[in-house]
Amino acid sequence: MSADRTPTGLPTRAARRTLETAPFWEAAGQGRLVLPRCDACGETIWYPRRFCPFCGGREVTWVEASGRGVVYTHTTVRKGVGPYGKVGPYVLAYVELDEGPRLLTNVVGIDPAEVRCGLPVVAVFDPAGDADALVRFRPA
Ligand code: ZN
User: Fold this and answer.
1) Where are the domains of the chain?
2) Per-position pLDDT tens, the chain of length 140
3) Handedness of CA 4, 6, 10, 16 (dihedral sign)
4) Distance from the CA of 59 to the center of ligand 1, in angstroms?
């Protein structure tokens, strides 16, 4: 399993696609953030599933997300493992998207000491493998 450094300076690798996550990775590889939404009740679903965990609906449509959100919570990792052991301190965070879901991700492009809960952020797409990208966030 190889790891490449990306424009954000953090390592990445190709995603492990499944039937449920393939649309997410395909869009991310194109620089777009998409989320599954229930056709029956309208709730945005995260993590990707082929059914709605809110109402049990089985019709889910992928919709374009704004790519905007705020830091919900965060921590600074000072001793990463594997390829992350070769980078300096980095921020691991939950970002709450404008659409509601909270993604476990990284906040990049900012001194880790400056990251705060509520910080407005916007998605960035780190190339991963031949066609995928990891979704990370930078200050808006
Ligand atoms: Zn639903």
Assistant:
1) 22-139
2) 334 446 778 888 888 889 999 999 999 999 999 999 999 999 999 999 989 999 999 999 999 999 999 999 999 999 988 888 888 899 999 999 999 999 999 999 999 999 999 999 999 999 887 778 899 999 99
3) negative
4) 8
